[in-house]
Amino acid sequence: MSIESILTPEKIQNELLSILPTVQKPARYNGGELNQVVKDWQSTAIHCCLVFPDIYDIGMSNLGLAILYETINQRPDALAERAFSPWVDMETKLRQNRLPLYSLETKHPLAAFDIIGFSLPYETLYTNVLNLFDLANLEIWSEKRSDQHPLIIAGGHATYNPEPMADFIDAFVIGEGEEVIHEILDVYYRWKKSFANRSSLLRDMADIDGVYVPIFYKAHYFADGTFSHLEKKDATLPATISKRIVAHLPPAPYRFIVPYIETVHERIPIEIMRGCTRGCRFCHAGMVTRPIRERSVSEIIETIQKAVKATGYNEVGLLSLSSSDYTHIAELVKEIQHHFSSSHLSISLPSLRIETFSIQLMQALGSTRRGGFTLAPEAATERMRNIINKPISTQDLLQTAQAVFENGWSTLKLYFMIGHPFETLDDVQAIVDLSKKVLSIGKNTIGHRAQIHVSVSTFIPKPHTPFQWVACDTLDSIEQKIALLQRNLRGKNLKLTWNPPQATFLEAWLSRGDRRLAHVIYLAWKNGAKFDAWNDQRNMNAWYQAFAACDLQPEFYTHRPRPVTEVFPWAHIDIGVRKNFLIQDYQMSLQEKTRADCRQGCYACGILPKYNSLRREQGLTWKCPPLKPKLYTPA
Amino acid sequence: MMRVRINFDKTEEMRFTSHLDMYRTWERTLRRACLPLAYTQGYKPHPRLQIAAALPLGFTSSNDLIDLWLEQDIPISTIQACIEAALPPGIKLNSIHAVPINQPSLQALLMASEYRITFLEAITDLEQRVQTIIQKPSVIIERKGKPRDLRPLILSIEIFLDSGSRHQGIQVLLKTDPANHARPDELILAMGIAPEKAVFHRQKLYFSQEIGASQS
Hints:
The structure holds two protein chains of two kinds. Chain A is α/β, with parallel strands linked by helices. Chain A has a domain at 3-242. In chain A, the strands form six sheets. Chain A has a six-stranded mixed β-sheet. In chain A, strand 17, helix 15 and strand 18 form a beta-alpha-beta unit. In chain A, helix 5 crosses helix 17 (517-526) and helix 9 (297-311) packs parallel to helix 10. Chain A is globular. Chain A starts with 8 loop residues before the first helix and ends in a 17-residue tail after the last helix. The A-B interface holds A 17-18, 20-22, 25-27, 30-34, 36, 258, 260-262, 308-314, 344, 370 and B 12-18, 21, 24-25, 27-32, 34, 39, 43-45, 57-58, 86, 88-90, 120, 195-197, 199.
C-alpha cells in the first residue's frame, strides 16, 4: 500500500453521494447521528478508529464499543471514530469504486488513523477482521506492517485466547479496557513524539500490564501437534499476561449515539454488575469476568435519567450475567417503580434466576407480557444440571413456570443446550418431556393461549473454563439429538428453534485453537469465508479446504479430549482463576458434584490473591466472603 | 390536549432515514425535550404523531410538517425552546404553531409536492427531454407490477442551473393526494435519467386549505 492510495475524506464523501442511494440501509454508512463525537482532525494528536467487525446494526448495540468511544473522546489529545463491516452489497460497491473502508465520523480512510481497535466478543468475527484489513488497504499480517501503518489492537472476550488471531493483531488488550486504554494512548503519544520505529512502539506496548504483543513470542509444538510452549524473543518480556480489571466500575456511559435506523437493541444499556459468582461450568463469561463489581442503586437511577434525556430511548436494559444476584435488586426495582412508572419507559432485566421471586421483579418493573417470560435451565435433568453446575430442582422450575402463567404471561421461552459433557439421549428426551410438562401446566392455568418456545443451542467448550478439557459432541451425535427434538417436540403451541451444528464447530475450533490456525483463517477468508456468524453467509467448505491446505484437522481442536496435564496455547493468559481450581471443578463435574454460589463460601478460585493489592488499596471485598482457607475437598 | 404543528427541514445527515425511522427519530426527540406527549390507547400505546407526507429514502426536504399532540397546554415559545435543545443533527426547526384539535389530518389535505432535482452529471439534451415528456399525452410506468400514468400527475417542470455547484437540475410540481401520487425518481427514470445520478430535495408541500404553518 502506498500513501498516495489514501483518498481524502472529501473525495470519499463525494463518491458516496452516488453509491449510497444504491445500497440497502445506506444510513449504516453515513454517520452523523445524534451524540456522535466529531473532533478536529488536525489539532488532535492521536486518531483512533474503533471497529466492530460485523454490520452497523449489530455493532452499534455493543456496550464495550460505546464505553471506549466515550472514554477516548474525553481525552483532549485523542479522538475515536467508528467503522463497521459493510454488508455484502456495500462491499461490492466499495471494491468496484476502489473506495477504502472509511470512518463514519469524518470519512477518513482507516489507513489514515494511528490506532485501529477491533472489538472481538466472539470468534466468528475473525474472517471479517481480515476482510476489513483488505477493504482498508492494510497489510493483513502484522509482521508485514511498517512504520506508516496504524497500530492494530484488539480486545473483547474472544481474545482471552488470542492465539488464532496472533499473526494479524499487533497488540491484544487482555481484560477490561477502561483503564488500560489510557496507558496505551499515553505510550503511543510518547512514541509518536519520539519518531522511533515501529518495533520500539511494540516493545513499549508489551511493557503495559495486560497488553500482549504476540510478535515477540514464538510458539512451539510437540510432534503430535499439541502445544509445547511459548518462547520469548527477549528475556525481559513478561512470561504471562494477566488480565486487567478495574477495582470499581467507572461511571456508566449515558450519552449513547442514537442511530437513525433500527438496530438490534434499541435501548439504553446499563451494566448493573460485572462478574458472576454462580460458576456454571460451561460459562466463559462467568470465569473471565471475576470478581463481582456492582453499581449503586443511586448511580443506576441517575444514569437512566441522564441517558433518557440524552438519547430519548424508551427502553432500558439492565445488564449483568445474573440479575437476581445483584445485591440490591429489590431496592433497585422499587426505586425504578418510584421514578419511572408513569414515563412510558420499559425496563428489561435479563438473566433472572428460575424462582418465583423473578416474576415479582418483572411485575414490579411493569413488564409487558407481550414478549414472553424467559427461563434458562440449560439442561432438563437434575443430573445434567449438576454436571454443568447449574443446580435447580425440577420442582422449582415447574413451580416457577406455573407462577409465570398465573401472573399473566402466555408465552414461556425455555433455553437449553445440547452436547453437554456426558450427555445421553435420555437427557435430550428429558428436554422434550420437561417442555411438554411445562406446556400442560400452562394449559391447565390459562388454557389454549399457553405457548412454549424451546430454544436449543449446542455447547462449546471454552478456554479458561472447567470444561476446557472436554471434547465437543460429535456431528453424528448432535444431529441425532436435534432429530430427536424435531421428532418429539412438536405440536400445537410448541415451537422449537436450534442452531446449525456446523456453526458450532466453527466457533469451537477457533475458541480453543492455537497460532497455526492463523493460516487456516487466512485461507478460509481467501476461499470466500466471511460473516461466519450469519447462517445465510457461512461457507463451511471454505474452512474445510483451508484446514486441508494447512494439513490440520478441525477435529484435533474440537473432538480430542485433552488430558489435564496438557499445556494449552492460552496458558500465558492469566485470568486470575487458578488452573487447579478449574481442574478440581472439572473433576467434580465428573462426579456430578456441584459448587454453590461462592458468595456463601469461598472455593479459592484465586481471584482475590491475584488482585490483592488492588483490593487492599481500595478497601474492597467485591462480594467475596471473608477469606478463610477453606478448600472444598471432593468426598 | 393540544395539537402542535412543526415546520422543519430534513437535512443531509438524515438523508438516508426512512419514513418509519423518521417517526422514531421524532418520538425520541420529543422524549428528550421532556414534553408531555399524548399516547394512543390500546395494546401497544405509542405517541400520537403525524407526518404530512412520506419522504423516500435518500431525499432531503424543506418545509416538512409534523403534527403532535400534547396532554397539557404549554406556551408555544416553551415548546419551541424544548424542541430546539433536543433536535438531532438532521432536523432543522423552522416554526411551530398550535392548530385546532379537530382539523383534518395533513395527509388528507395534501395536494401537491414541489421537488428540486439536481443532476450530478451534465445532461446535454435536458431541455429536449423535458419538452418530450411534457408533450406526451401519457407516461406509463410500472409500480409494484401495475401500470400507472404519471403524466396527469406532472403539474410543472422547470430547468435550473445551480449557482454554486454549476449542476443542472429540474424543479417539478407533482400531484400528491391520498388517492394518487407521482415519485420524482420515477419521473426522471421516465426521462431516461438514472436516479442514482441525481440528488432529490422536496422543497414544499401544497394543501387544499390554509394549514396555519407558514412556509418559508
